[in-house]
Structure formats: C-alpha cells, structure tokens
Amino acid sequence: MKKRGFWSFAALIAGFTVYFMLNEPGTAQAMHIMEGFLPVGWAVFWWVAFLPFFVLGIIRLRSMTKENPELKLLLGLAGAFTFVLSALKMPSVTGSSSHPTGTGLGAVMLGPLPMGVIGSVVLLFQALLLAHGGITTLGANAFSMAVAGPFAGYAVYKLMMKLPDREKLALFCAAAVADLMTYVVTSFQLAVAFPAADGGVLASFLKFGGIFAVTQIPLAISEGLLTVLLWNWLKSYSPNEMSLLKRKVKGGNA
Amino acid sequence: MSNKWKNGLMLLAVVLLCVLPLLFVNGEFGGADDAAEGVITEINPEYEPWFKPLTELPGETESMLFALQAAIGAGVIGYSLGLLKGKQGQPKQNSISK
C-alpha cells in the first residue's frame, strides 16, 4: 500500500509532465457565461430550471440545521471551500486560465441540494462585485455549477462507495467529476443557444466542449486532490462529525 | 506512507499542475471568459450582448476582491478546523504538512 501510493503519484506526475509538453495551446473559455451573452429566452429558461432546486435546497438546509445544529459549521466549511476554490484562477494546459468549483466536497458531505444554495451565493457575489458571470446568466451558471456539478459528484460518490475501503478515491472522483460536469453543462448551454450554421447544436457542443474539457482536466484533478486534502484534515480532527455526516449522507437525501 | 507524506505529495501535485503549464505552454493565460466571447462571435457574428455588467471595476480592484473572496473562505476554513480540533480536547499529531 505504502509503495503503491508513492508510485501512483510518481506516475501521475510523470504522465502530466508529458501531457503538458505535448499539448498545443489554444483558446479556451471559462466556467461562467458572460453577462448578456445568453439570448433572453435561454436566460429565462435556465432561471426557471434552476429556481426549483434553489427552493428545495433552502428547505433541505432548514430541516438539516434544525435536526443537527452542529451541521452549521460543516455547512460553513463547504461554503468556504467553494469560495476559496472559485477565487483561484489557475493556469491550464491550453494557455488560458480558469478556476475550479469546489462543490464536490459539500455535495459529498451534505448532499447535492444544499450546494445549490451555497454555490449560487458564491456566483451572485462574483456576478455583482466582480463582473464575473452575470445576473442575467446567473440562472444558467448556477444550474451548471451549483446543481448539475454537485448532483454528478454525489452520484459518483454513492457509486464508488460501494467498493470496499475506497473512500478517498471516491471523494477524489466526486470532486473531479463535479468540476468537469459543470463545464460540460456550460458547453451544452452555450451550444443550444448558439448552434453552428453547419452541424447545428452538436457541432457547437463539440466546439465548446472540446476546448473546455482540455482546459478543465488538470483543474479537475487539482480540485480532487485539494478536496481529499481537506477531508484528511477534517477526519483527523473530527471523527464524530464525519460519521454524523455519513449517517446524513446515507439517509438518502436529494 | 504516512498521512503527512500523502498530504505533502498531494499539495506538490497541485502546485505542479499549476506551474507546469506556465513553464511548458506558451499562452496568454488570460481569463477564459473573454475567450468564450470570441467563439460566440465566431459562430454568430450578429449577436449583440443585451445586458452589460452592472459594475466595471479596474483590474486592481477586481484582483483585490478575488483576494478578499479567497481570504474570507480561508478564514472560515481555518476557524472551522480550529474549532473541531479544540472540541476534540486532545490535539492529535495532525497531518498538516509543512
């Protein structure tokens, strides 16, 4: 186990070194759809799609904190993690920068619904203060980052926890998938709003998605590693707290 | 391999994932949001954004707010970890790698 852990790390790093050296820089895009860059109809559509999740998330948060007031701390932690990670604009292999989402941790700890609320608060902050993303596109951005991402991460975690003794791997994959999924959904949102003249939605999706995926792969891996790192610290300080979450997560929310 | 080592290696991997592109990839490393505009304009040259961001901040102020965002988050994480550790009573040999 000891040896294997080290060698898998070494292999990972070596693999990436090669990947970076061979990769051709190109243009890329980011997680957020810019203000005004989604036609009105689609902007409204995604707002409508996102709002039910937001309302359910609020209801879920209220019942969770009523049952277990001590969960508030972990809620703050999940929110803070999203806050930090989405402020980190990391350089990526395509020669442009983007940022991770940090929603995987909260989805695993608290279930996907509360993250819908936490994630959209972060997006609102960025839209209002940083002109990053936007108010009109907040529905679409929140749907991808705060709904689709956490749900995908949560599903992966649930599936992988069926394997024996693979908690950290499950966590890593959940965080990475939540990050990538955010991107895939954003690509899809842009593709349906801007179908290419020849090839339609699919061609646009491949165009947005192909560029997206490459930019986000190393960031998704970074996010997975950082999530496991924080998890390790949490576990070493608070075995009880985590087991409480386990019970909450096993309680099958969403 | 102890937890300390594992955490250290994970941090190292994250740092490398950031540093290596800077070393090996020749790019602008501009914000990726702006690049999205380029593709949209390419697909649909007639498209006009119908809403402007409410605030247009100077770059320095923007980076200050990003730093503030990260600082608030980091503060809350630090506070929570400290609280959890304090609740535990006996501080264990923890795994924060330094």
UniProtKB/TrEMBL annotation, chain A:
Membrane-spanning regions, if any? 40-59, 108-131, 138-157, 169-196, 208-234
InterPro entries recorded for this chain?
A: CbiM (IPR018024), CbiM/NikMN (IPR002751)
| Keyword Repeat among UniProt keywords | no
Gene Ontology annotations of biological process type: cobalamin biosynthetic process
> Which molecular function term from Gene Ontology is one that the record holds?
cobalt ion transmembrane transporter activity
**Record's bilayer topology term:** Multi-pass membrane protein
Q: Mind telling me which GO cellular component terms the entry cites?
A: ATP-binding cassette (ABC) transporter complex
Question: Per UniProt, which keywords does this protein have?
Answer: Cell membrane, Cobalamin biosynthesis, Cobalt, Cobalt transport, Ion transport, Membrane, Signal, Transmembrane, Transmembrane helix, Transport
Q: In which pathway does it act?
A: Cofactor biosynthesis; adenosylcobalamin biosynthesis
> Can you say where in the cell this protein is located?
Cell inner membrane; Cell membrane
> What HAMAP family does the entry give?
CbiM
Provide the protein name: Cobalt transport protein CbiM
Biological source species: Paenibacillus borealis
Which gene is this protein's source? cbiM
From TrEMBL, chain B:
Looking up InterPro entries in the UniProt record yields: CbiN
- Chief localization: membrane
Q: How does it sit in the membrane?
A: Multi-pass membrane protein
| Cellular component, GO annotation | plasma membrane
The alphabetized list of GO BP terms reads: cobalamin biosynthetic process
Involved pathway(s):
Cofactor biosynthesis; adenosylcobalamin biosynthesis
Instruction: Give yes or no: UniProt keyword Transmembrane helix.
Output: yes
Could you give a GO molecular-function term held by this entry? Answer: cobalt ion transmembrane transporter activity
* Function noted in UniProt: Part of the energy-coupling factor (ECF) transporter complex CbiMNOQ involved in cobalt import.
> Which PANTHER family does the record match to this protein?
COBALT TRANSPORT PROTEIN CBIN (PTHR38662:SF1)
Q: How does it assemble?
A: Forms an energy-coupling factor (ECF) transporter complex composed of an ATP-binding protein (A component, CbiO), a transmembrane protein (T component, CbiQ) and 2 possible substrate-capture proteins (S components, CbiM and CbiN) of unknown stoichimetry.
Protein name from the UniProt record: Cobalt transport protein CbiN
